[in-house]
């Protein structure tokens, strides 16, 4: 079943059957969300299950069905923040994930992921989050606005600034001999 | 600002939202200014490369049916358990012991249970509870896969889920 169809079915009729269809449609994306943020696969799978469980329990909070993806990744982001708070020093202020310097983390992704992670090191944590949701999870501007609780114009402006920051780096990596 | 073109105008132009008159002016400038043309080319190229690389990442991180199925069974079990009282943890662990002992011996089973608990949020076997059951079972299954193979690991996983569902 296609993702949109599974979401509509579940939101109309919350049952185990509709949840299973929703789970099959969404779990790979949510799991991927955690993997590209450098979590090992077991932790990513556990957190993804937590997110889908929260979707089951809290789907009534969703006001606009068309913005389901934005709400979903807001839940995922909060799950990730809670995970970092539990697993890092209490004295640290955790807003986003700790900077990962190891670009060769083979548990994360293949060569495209390594390339993407390399570009992300030039961005601030908030920009990295926005860029991953836009270009890996393909959230629309509207959905990103929901996920980050900001106006759509702010989303567009921040993404423009990301492209500005990355334009020369990406251009250089595309013309490098090994690219 | 770049040759009289503001960042806002660049952004709107890339989004296709710039008014027609300004578009004409901007494009007339691009035709004659290599620096601005290169700047635009890099901006547009960056967006395209991010899009293409994102697509490649989605392909790289595809999910096999086995992992999807396990995750689904685990999550549905948690949903079903939400309204039910906690099952006796000792009974659950003893059931797993009875499944595993013929495969690898009682001492190895105890060692595996202890290791799985230590690697899970429970940290000790005594602290394993409903809340920790799934991460504990996941760790135990991983250990069993190494010790006894994937078939045995699947049996342990299914047994652990079935014991939960029976309460």
Break the fold down into its secondary structure elements and pairings.
The complex is a heterodimer of chains A (179) and B (167).
Chain A: H1 3-12, H2 16-35, H3 41-58, H4 68-87, H5 111-120, H6 125-135, H7 141-148, H8 152-175
Helix pairs in contact in A: 1-2, 2-3, 3-4, 4-7, 7-8
Chain B: H1 7-15, H2 20-32, H3 34-60, H4 65-81, H5 89-104, H6 106-119, H7 133-148, H8 150-165
Helix pairs in contact in B: 2-3, 4-8, 5-6, 5-8, 6-7, 7-8
Short description, anyone?
The complex is a heterodimer of chains A (179) and B (167). Chain A is an all-alpha fold. Helices cover 68% and strands 0% of the residues of chain A.
Note down, in words, how this protein is organized.
The complex is a heterodimer of chains A (179) and B (167). Chain A has helices at residues 3-12, 16-35, 41-58, 68-87, 111-120, 125-135, 141-148, 152-175. Chain A has 179 residues and is mainly α. In chain A, helix 3 packs across helix 4 and helix 7 (141-148) crosses helix 8 (152-175). Chain A has one domain (3-175). The longest helix of chain A has 24 residues, at 152-175. Chain A has eight helices and no strands. Residues 90-108 of chain A have low confidence and may be disordered. Helices cover 68% and strands 0% of the residues of chain A. Chain B has 167 residues and is an all-alpha fold. Chain B folds into two domains: 7-60, no CATH class; 65-165, no CATH class. Chain B contains eight helices and no strands. Chain B is rod-shaped. The N and C termini of chain B lie far apart (67 Å). In chain B, 25% of the residues are buried. The mean pLDDT of chain B is 86. Chain A binds chain B through residues 16, 19-20, 23-24, 27-28, 31-32, 35-36, 42, 45-46, 48-49, 52-53, 56-57, 109-113, 115-116, 119, 131, 134-136, 138, 156-157, 160, 163-164, 166-168, 170-171, 174, and chain B through 7, 10-11, 14-15, 39, 42-43, 45-47, 49-51, 53-54, 56-63, 67-68, 71-72, 74-76, 78-79, 82, 134-135, 138-139, 142.
